[in-house]
Structure to design on (820 residues):
């Protein structure tokens, strides 16, 4: 199974310490190294000054094989990181004429003359190496000493990711000679504790498989990993029937992607009638490229007048049961389906919060309705009274009800 | 001006290192300590094991006055952090009978008997102190030695923030006897470089004032800070007229909050006709509690049929100019205003991407229309062809056009 490599991460920048920017690079790097046999065991964030960067390098723990640095490596002159690293690794900067020519041509292609101030981007170390930057002009740096290899990359996420994917991850993969098989199953509509109870017996049969349960407001992600491919395959095969109903996709798949794929396959169209979600379901459906082939559109029916005029909800229904009711939800779903000539209508009506509840209808109460030519149903939920989270959970419920109907017909 | 305190931050948890969770606590803490005279100068993330936590404490840089720890301090038995901290600060756990009674009553109030396993939550150190937890049951820990004071808090953001706001920040404030005045001005519709050019001359007149420019896809936030209140006041007074048009709110205010406030003040109502944004403008408007008093609702007009049937866009308009055109945008805004009986209609139609462009109408092209009884206008933008970002930028433009019309009447 080879050798797993210990990685130390140093993120550089005052904006990370003073909170002007949230460090999203660290989590991305932490995840991305696992499949190729790396493991971030230590992470330090420091200011971009000489003593802070040197101190981070001096204080690396034992048994670090690779140091990844991000930040402080941009196109501006005042980035101190390269200077510190050149000194720390006893390297001298050399002018890289070939790369300067490439930069000059890039500028020329845009009809511009390259400023002399860009010459620092064409420097390279006499020992060590540069990391190509496929999406920017500032290249990364690669140094090594007796203890570890160091890769320094810009803090701009797109540039860092590009260097990781093209240079650093393949390098780690080759060095580690160790593979970890990782997949993320995304689930919705089931609680973490119930998932755990159901999967635990299977997990006990597969000691080489690990699961991390990652709960979110919209569901639980399962990060399943193993060093042994056949254990992994066997576990996934046994687990699949147990979570099938809740497992809507893998890795970065969103629920709207899953719903969109099924709508495309089945050739069905959908329309939305949103009250408490305010347009969020439509927003999510249209995050998917190509959604115009199955999403007809929707009505955001925030006022009762709109519910009646556009969606044909009966005044007697609103008077007798209220806007937040099973009866209104079903008339909204039916109304929008007919009005926009779709195969399927989906509706939400609820009290998103934080105010507006009564004893009978508490804040957080949400109805989701679904209507087709031969099937109608309403679901009742009580979600959190935190407004934005309530909307998110309601949209998730509506999309999942849609998914399950399309898959199972009920 | 007192003494600014240097803060070291230790975030504990394997889930932060392996990327299962993005560390959002660090940025929140980095920001929150500045106004009370603190400054995060060092941040380390470690696994929740004894040697990693001890090593972080052993490797603190010189001149650290306060150490803040988050994570590894929950209601479960296997959290190692308290054990390590008790040992590190030579403290012994004592059973806190008074707190145990409080916990027992909390459970009783929910009709439950407190499990014996919760007794560990009622332990407190014989030296040092506990930090009350207003929103959970696991209390924080406060220790000190000759060099620094240490505050350990749970990693759950709501619990950490509550402890910071109620105990730690007031404590820092008192110790530091130093205030930094900080305000964030949120702007939209102007580029960072232009903002910089306009503000730089004023900034040069106020050497005690600093600005951090924080660009986002939807605008640029200005974090303005000073140790001197009169410099700050003078700077803000001079800067305000220059950024007035773009400055929609302060601190955490969203553009939809600003638009909502103006709609409430003016008593106007609004309706949306969304094509490329798919419901996002409605979603954002309804993120604001109380929006039902000014937001009538909207039509998500993804198909041409809906544009014609619900919004009364003329077939001849669609045939002659296309769905993505100035003419369609204006008919959509007018149509939804009339259909939903609102004072104001706002529309979007565009090519959000990543595909669907032509030479004449490139991917990213977006029209935003606005219609009232006596005013109509269309704005043309070319935003990024990245779909979700394009939608976000389009919704921001539509809300900002609404804001400027409501403020200036054009």
């Amino acid at each position: 199974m080879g050798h797993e490599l210990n990685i130390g991460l140093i993120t550089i920048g005052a904006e990370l310490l003073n909170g002007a920017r949230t460090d999203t690079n660290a989590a991305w790097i932490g995840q991305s190294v696992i499949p190729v046999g790396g493991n971030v065991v230590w992470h330090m964030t420091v200011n971009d000054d000489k003593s802070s960067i040197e101190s981070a390098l001096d204080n690396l723990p034992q048994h670090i094989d690779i140091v990844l640095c991000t930040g402080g490596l941009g196109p501006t002159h005042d980035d101190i990181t390269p200077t510190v690293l050149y000194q720390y690794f006893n390297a001298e900067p050399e002018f890289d004429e070939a790369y300067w020519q490439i930069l000059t041509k890039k500028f020329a292609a845009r009809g511009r003359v390259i400023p002399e101030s860009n010459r620092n981007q064409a420097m390279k170390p006499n020992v060590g190496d540069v990391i190509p930057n496929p999406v920017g002009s500032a290249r990364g740096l690669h140094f090594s000493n007796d203890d570890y290899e160091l890769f320094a990359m810009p803090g701009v996420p797109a540039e860092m990711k590009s260097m990781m994917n093209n240079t650093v991850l393949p390098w780690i993969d080759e060095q580690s000679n160790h593979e970890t098989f990782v997949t993320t199953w995304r689930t919705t509509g089931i609680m973490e504790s119930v998932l755990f109870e159901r999967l635990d017996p299977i997990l006990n049969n597969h000691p080489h498989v690990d699961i991390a349960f990652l709960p979110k407001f919209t569901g639980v992600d399962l990060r399943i990993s193993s060093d042994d491919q056949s254990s992994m395959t066997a576990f996934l095969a046994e687990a699949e029937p147990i979570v099938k109903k809740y497992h809507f996709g893998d890795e970065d798949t969103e629920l709207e992607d899953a719903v969109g794929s099924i709508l495309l396959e089945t050739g069905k169209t959908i329309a939305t009638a949103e009250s408490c979600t305010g347009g969020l379901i439509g927003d999510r459906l249209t995050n998917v490229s190509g959604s115009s082939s199955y999403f007809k559109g929707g009505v955001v029916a925030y006022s009762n007048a709109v519910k009646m005029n556009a969606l044909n909800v009966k005044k007697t229904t609103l008077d007798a049961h209220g806007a937040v009711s099973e009866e209104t939800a079903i008339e909204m779903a039916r109304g929008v389906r007919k009005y926009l000539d779709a195969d399927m209508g989906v509706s939400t009506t609820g009290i998103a919060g934080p105010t507006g509840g009564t004893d009978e209808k508490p804040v957080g109460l949400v109805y989701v309705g679904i209507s087709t030519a031969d099937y109608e149903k309403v679901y009742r939920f009580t979600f959190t009274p935190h407004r934005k989270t309530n909307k998110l959970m309601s949209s998730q419920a509506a999309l999942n009800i849609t998914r399950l109907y399309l898959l199972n017909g009920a």
Summary: Chain A touches chain B through 73 residues (CB under 8 Å).
